[in-house]
Structure formats: structure tokens, C-alpha cells
Amino acid sequence: MEMSFPDYIDNPSGSKNGVWTHRTMYKDMYNQKLTKILVRETGKIKYQQYVYKDNYIVHFKIPSEVIPDFYYDTVIEFSPVDQMMINSNNLKRYNVKFYSNDPAFVFTFAYSFLQNDMFIRDLVPRMSKEAVKKAAVQTNPKNEVGYVKSIYFTYILMDKYNLWNAQDYKQYGKIYSKSSFLKEITHADEKVKDRTDQQEKINKEKKIDKEKLKNRSKSNPKNVTSSNNVTTSNNIKNNSKSKNVSTIKNIGKSKGNVNFNKF
Fold it and tell me: Is residue 247 part of a domain?
């Protein structure tokens, strides 16, 4: 299946029968999520551009929403349809293929992307063998191409950073080498395991904190009750202020003033 990156955002299934259901809802949701991430990351999302003949590649390190300092390799490959497209330099018109070691891509969409020729072939060795060979019957029973959060974030970031001009890749990008590039991409199995381990660590820390609070409550219930009441009261005031002031200020700063670093 051939489609441009904007085509994927408009309708990832590629169906010509209408638009993707709830497209506007997804757009608003992903923009809000990424805005919060940019505030947390102080606007620094790393990426690297590559050139391979008439093809162009961009590799982003997309931050996890949940796990601090944890990043998914998300890669977009742009290829021209004809000579006229090559001369235009506008990558929004190029066909695209994708890769991500985001668990949502691995467990739900890797197989469908591969079957629809929308998976970057050079990066098949960096994908779970099971995800490549077997359809995701439970998570994607219709075997459809759908939205992947890390890929959608990449599209928004490309708009923010103005990464649609092929000439910029020629000027600032690296010459693509498959062997070298594979070394830059963490295998999906390894990334998923690391993600699971990090989540278990966070859950364990939360459980320990909860037990400590519970023990304090048992040892001195009167004092804890009193302090909890005060804390709740203060939190209500602080939350009210932060929702109306702090968050709006932070989001406002991130729009139009995003700083970013290359690898």
C-alpha cells in the first residue's frame, strides 16, 4: 500500500471510503500528550536525518509518556514516486514506510504494516520474530494499519521542526549505511523487556511507599489523620492554582519555541 505521511495521518487504513473514524479526536489527544512530554523533556527531542540515493530517512528518539528517560526508536523512510516528485523536494508528497520499537507497534501493527509494504525492510532484523511472522489476532483481529502513538508524535514533531525539505537532508543528514544504521536501533524484544523491567521497578517503588504510609497510619493514626486533612486542603488550593496558571504557562512556552538536539 502506498501513501504519504499526511495520508497516514488522515486515514492510516488507506481506505477510500470516507475518513478515519474519530480522526479529530486522535489529533487533539496526541497533540495534548506530546505537549506535556515536550514540557517534561524541556523541548529536547533527539533526531537524525539520513540520505540514501533519492530516499530520505529520519530517526527520532520518542520519549515514553510513563517511563522517565526512556525512548523509542521511531524511523520514517521517504521514497519518491517519480522524477517530478524528486524535483519538488517536498517530503510530504513522498511515499512512507515505518519502524518503531514502541510496544504498540510491536504487538499490534508490525505484521499489518509488513503485509501492506509499509514496514522499512532494512529494519526487519530489529523487530520481534513473532511480530513479523504472526498476525496480531487478539489486538488487531482485522489486521489493519492503524495509528501508532510514537509515529503520530513523529509527524507532529516534523511539522514543529520543519523537516519536510529534502534539501535539508542532503545538507545536514548522514549518508545512510544499513550496517551502521542497524547499530543505532535497539531490537524490539530488548526494548520491550527493558520497558517491562522499568515499569516493574516503578510499581515496586510505589508499593513500598504505600506500605510506609500504611505503617505510619497504624503507628500514629491521630497525627496522620490530622496531617492528611491539612495536606488535602493544601493540595486543593495548589491544584487549583497550578491548573489555571502553571500548566498553561508551560504549554504556552512549548508551542513555537521548541528546542531540539541531533544525536
Answer: no
SS3 label, residue 105: helix
Domain assignment present for residue 262? The answer is: no
CA distance 104 to 127: 13
Q: Got the DSSP string for 63-78?
A: EPSSSTT-EEEEEEEE
Residue 260 placed within a domain: no
Contacts of 105 (CB under 8 A, 6+ apart): 98, 99, 113, 148, 150, 151
Q: Is the pLDDT of residue 46 over 50?
A: yes
Domain containing 178: what range?
Answer: 5-197
Parallel/antiparallel/unpaired status of strands 47-52 and 174-175: parallel
pLDDT in tens, 197-250: 999 999 888 888 888 887 877 777 665 444 444 444 444 344 444 443 333 233
- Which residue spans within the chain are E strands per DSSP? 47-52, 55-63, 71-79, 95-100, 174-175
* Domain count for the chain: 1
What are the tens digits of pLDDT across the range 91-125? Answer: 999 999 999 999 999 999 999 999 999 999 999 99
Bridge partners (DSSP) of residue 73 are 61
